[in-house]
Amino acid sequence: MRAIIFGFLPFLLVTAFGRWYYVCKVHQLCGDATEIKKDDPRPATLDLTDEDSGKVIFKDFDEFSFSEKNGLPDLNENNETFIDSLAAYLNRQPSKNLSITGNYLESERKTKYGYYENLGQARANEIRELLLEKGIEEDRFAVDYDIVAGDSLMNPIIFEVFDNNGNNNSNADSENTGNGSERLVKEAFSFTNMSYSDANFAYNSDVFQPGDAFKLYADSVRTYLSENPNKILTVVGHTDNIGGDEFNDDLGKRRAESAKAYFNGLGVSNTINTVSMGKRQPLATNETDEGRQKNRRVNFKLE
Question: pTM for the whole thing?
Fold first, then answer.
């Protein structure tokens, strides 16, 4: 019996070594599981461009990634390097501001995120927060959003720098670019400079019917103003370009007054000013339904 055992033992050792070599050396499946590398599906197509010149400032970074119906980015090391590089560029170029466009899918249209009307705004804001943590001033950001067809979000965030020339939500009228199109203004979509679309109004109506996102925002503003009695809220009404100047100026003013009345109803006693810019400050082209819907909005500025 002892002879059989000692004869069988070398066979077991050879078999064990063979299995170890096959699994560990050939297929590299041994060791700590954290050492196993998986392919990252993110395309390295993210870049930073200059809106005015079209110049690509840097490129070939990994795209940011977001789970469906979620506004928080899932950052990898390359994304963090991009944020660091972007912050360093903005620090070197104080004459430049940054536009962040957040995209979202058609299937995410009804998803709300905090006091943002859509996930595009929310996603852009989360990226802005990362740059604020790097010390970039809040007034150097503009936010935009777009809805994307299909079921895959390959480019969730678009970055562009633009000249700091007062075009960021200025009170000046928009200009003609010289090629027949209007110069578009930019807005912050931040707590102190927030806009809501005409989803809160019936078509051509000045009756304010706030949605859930606005109600959350208004409640936060009410608390903020109660703690800062010297702060002023300015409500600015905007329209698309359908109709004449007089009609749109009046509609914008009535919508701003209606939103003011809502805050008064919440018990806000701070000064609330109302202004109408009519159709003079488009955020997007008026050539499409989506663009006109963006332009029909009410802007809330805490000053």
Answer: 0.80
